[in-house]
Amino acid sequence: MQNIDIDMKVKLIHGFSNKTRIQILESIKNQEKTVSQIVEEINGNQSNISQHLACLKGCGIIVGRNEGKYCYYSLRNQHIRDLLTMFDTVLEDVQNDVACCERHID
Asked: Which are the contacts of 3, defined by CB distance < 8 A and separation ≥ 6?
């Protein structure tokens, strides 16, 4: 494996560091969806959701597929799906510590 630039790693991880982006990723984890479907599912604002989708797409975490007047969003690949599952697995082990953490920085 090649040597990964730490700044690139931080940019990738930043894509996962927002509640709305995580909600979007969980929404499309198992099935591609349109913006409208995502907005409805996570009870969000279309403009805000679109901005977060652009961030996720720009980071290479998701992809969009145009069909007619709709764009369907999905996770880029199985590695991203596995990473989301791994977050859940790790969180099960450390959730008490995370709940008590007072050093959270927004």
From this structure: none
- Identify the CA nearest to 22 among candidates 52, 64, 51, 48: 52
Mean pLDDT of 17-25: 96
Beta strand spans in the chain (E):
62-67, 70-75
Torsion of CA 29, 24, 9, 78, to 10 degrees: 10
Q: Is 74 left (phi over 0), alpha (psi -120 to 50) or beta?
A: beta
Q: How far apart are the first and last CA of the chain?
A: 32
Q: How many C-beta neighbours within 10 Å does residue 77 have? A: 11
- Would the pTM count as exceeding 0.85? yes
**Which residue in this structure is represented by tokens 């969806």?**
33
CA dihedral 32, 89, 42, 27 (to 10 degrees): 0
